[in-house]
Amino acid sequence: METLEQKQRMLKEVWAEVRRKHLYPELPQPSWEEQEDRVAIDIKDKRISVSAPFVEELSQFMDPACVASGLLDHAVSHYLHCPWDLSTHLKLYREAKHVLKDKQMAQKATGYFMDVVADTLCMSQKESNLPELYRHIKRGIMDEAVHALYQTIWGLDLGVKGYEEVARKLSRLPYLDRGRWMESIRKFSKIVQSLLEVEERFGGLDRPNPMGEHGLQQYSPEEIEQGLKEFARDAATPAEFNEIVEDLQDELLEAMEPNHKGMGLGPGRSLDADILYYMKLAENYALPVRRRPMEKSGALYPHHHVPWEVGRPFQDIDPWTSFGKIMPGITQTWERREGEVLGREEGTPDCIVLIDSSGSMTNPRQSLSYAVLGAACACDAYLRNDAQVAVYNFSDAKAGGCQILPFTRHRMSIYKTICHYFGGGTKLLLEDLESLQRSSLPDIFLITDMQITNLEALIQYFNEKKNRVTAVHIGDNEHVRTFRRSMALRKNVGIFSVEKKEDIPKIVLGRIREYFHSPSRP
Amino acid sequence: MKNPFQDFGSLSVERKELPLERIVRAREEVMERMVHGYLKLVEEEVKDLVWLVEHSRVVKAYSAAVKSIRELQYDADDIEEFCSELDSSNKIPYMISGPAGIYLSALVNHAQEDRIVLPLKDYQRTFHFVGYRLPDGKTLILQGDVGDFVGAGLSGGRLVVEGSVGNWCGAGMMKGEIQVMENSGQNTGEWMRGGEIHVEGRIRSLGKTLFGGRIFQRGKLVVPQETDSEI
After folding, report:
1. Which terminal residue of chain A, N or C, has fewer Cβ atoms less than 10 Å from its own Cβ?
2. Do B20 and A20 make contact, defined as CB atoms within 8 angstroms?
3. Buried b (16+ CB within 10 A) or exposed e, A493-521
4. Is the predicted ipTM greater than 0.85, yes or no?
């Protein structure tokens, strides 16, 4: 029995070799995990934990250093090749779920697929102890099938008998071709479906994979944010995003535990996937904003040296760089420039977002709502620039169909209010809007199809106010034309049309950029 | 000065070729040839992207299909994958059900394996003419529903459909057996000359002209004893 110190030393040596072999991946020193019921390895936030009982158990068949080396090869290959990032992980899961229609089976299939890819890539590029490890590992039904596959595609004997048909079918998939992983995992899932069903019947799906599970805890909170952002962009509909995120909600929250406020989530430990979808999708169109324009201060300050010439004033001569001489060409004089300082202009104004959620608008939970995405982009831009956002979500406000969120920077509350869908008629109460006004003149962002019953009153309101208004209309109709005509002369009102998804980021961002970058307010 | 890359000097840069790569390469080559053969057949047989089911055209298309696969080495897995390609791949710009089924039948009939299972239930498209001229000694099992003319001209093989079939099932079959686990459409067994059709579900209508053979519904003989067209 080795002492802890010996084991630590051994792991350190093995890790040095594994790192060198994999060209020094940016991973921290692995550690030993002593708990009895652990699987071979566990990865949390990039730190690999190697199970000491597992290594000890296998040490009767092979050198413990070789066991540790094989396990680390497996873990590092996951980090370097597959799944690579959360977005890929979620996409693989989505494809598997599409075929298997069951969360647990899809998770298992995704895990096994990623194992096959990572191990095979490792085997194709490095010398590894993985085959020796797999030869002695305890196997369930799926493990047998996957190891039979390894026998076929690695050309080695791992001591598996049977599963020839499954292995033959699985061996036809191009695991090393990253561009075809989605197609491959669909086929992979279809082939192993019957085995997974057998595993499910005998409770095998509840048992962890001996080489470790591929939970989302391996990702850092930042990677989760980025992954969800990419996944939202890739999802065809909010429903597709929701299905996957709701499936993995617990794991996502678990992985975000150390710093879950980054998502803008408050206490309560739940993810509203609909809201998250628009939140993450909007982040894809993030706008860089120059916060405070610089102004000329009028004061001159020494900027750089130029050679002194006869006729130039003496007071700007720099004696320290002139060798104590007054001589053209040798004597240096200061060139002065006018200084720039932060002007009186405040950074980014706050914004009141008016969003129409009447029956004529798309329900954001059913399909992609341009209105909600547009409003989300606008909110994101203001929040990123330290401004506050108030939301007025209305349908028939007089009949109670409205939600008012006072100025706040709490993302989740903002997106929750934006995503709320009322249906029904369209009428806003101007006194509600007026209650959100501030002396500092917040911007107003309106997004609607303009089929507002009291549109005339709104036009009148905008005519009286000096707030900068960005009005975005979805589609085109008589009311839009009326609004455009009425606002034609107002310099503080910008009107944009949205016909397709691509219009939203362009129009919203373009407008906001133009405004934020203007040197002074109108 | 120390070479900063010295540590990497002992690392092998040679990449091993795993059997996987050979398997995938061979598979892709076969698939490419299958797709090419199918597209050529479509090009020759379906000039206006409309294909009329006429006996002479069916025979001609089948002959062309057999000719195009003559030197191809493939197995049942390749056929299964070809079905998948026909269903969803962007490698095949147009899938015309008649010629596709005939090409598929030619592949099945000339495969090395005697027993072939094709899981068709998850596919979006419907395959017609599957099992055309299935020869003696071959068993073809189709999992899922299939289209029209399934098992047409069956020539001694055993065709099992684990689902429903469309119209004209077993049209002109010579000998062999067709087993349909669910329902069959109109004109079942039209022009059949021999063999047996067993339907476990409903038969929408029987063929009007039958020269021989027997048709069973739920184990009960309905042809030749009973020739009523609506059952």
Report:
1. N
2. no
3. bbbbebeeeebbbebbbebbeebbeeeee
4. no
Which long-range contacts link A197-200 to residues 24+ away (Cβ below 8 Å)?
Answer: A197/A105, A198/A141, A199/A108, A199/A140, A199/A141, A199/A142, A200/A102, A200/A104, A200/A105
Residue A474 is given by DSSP the state E
Cβ of A125 and B19 within 8 Å?
A: no
Q: Look at residue B172 in the predicted model and tell me its pLDDT.
A: 94
- What digits encode the pLDDT tens for the residues B121-178? 888 888 899 999 999 999 999 999 999 999 999 999 999 999 999 999 999 999 999 9
Kindly report which listed range (A41-45, A192-196, A249-253, B39-43) carries the lowest average pLDDT score: A41-45
Residue B181: which of B159, B166, B160, B196 has the closest Cα?
B160
The residue among A261 and A302 whose pLDDT is bigger is A302
Identify the residue with better confidence: A123 or A213: A123
Tens of pLDDT, residues A468-488: 888 889 888 899 999 999 888
Work out the minimum CA distance from A153 to partner chain B, whole angstroms.
4
Best A23, A151, A153 residue to mutate vs chain B (most B CBs within 10 Å): A153
In DSSP notation, A406-422 reads EEE--HHHHHHHHH---
Query: Cα separation of A174 and A65, whole Å?
Result: 32
CA–CA gap between residue A402 and residue A396 (Å, rounded) = 7
Q: What is the DSSP string of A122-159?
A: HHHHS--SHHHHHHHS---HHHHHHHHHHHHHHT---S
H or E segment to which residue A470 belongs: strand A469-474
DSSP notation for A184-200? HHHHHHHHHHHHHHHHH
Q: What is the pLDDT of residues B206-216, one digit of tens each?
A: 999 889 999 99
From A120, A172, A177, residue closest to B27, measured CB to CB: A172
By Cβ distance, the residue of B8, B11, B23 closest to A172 is B23
A28–chain B nearest CA distance, Å: 19
Q: Is the pLDDT of residue A99 over 90?
A: yes
A171 vs B: CB within 8 A: yes
Q: Please report the sign of the dihedral spanned by the C-alpha atoms of residue B101, residue B104, residue B105, residue B106.
A: positive
For residue B7, is pLDDT > 80?
no
Q: Tell me what pLDDT residue A268 has.
A: 44
The H or E element that residue B101 is part of is helix B97-109
Angle at A229 between CA A223 and CA A230, to 5 degrees: 90
Question: Taking 70 as the threshold, does the pLDDT of residue A39 lie above it?
Answer: no
Q: Which of these, B202, B158, B156, B198, lies nearest to B180 by C-alpha position?
A: B198
Q: Which two tokens stand for residue A207?
A: 């048992």
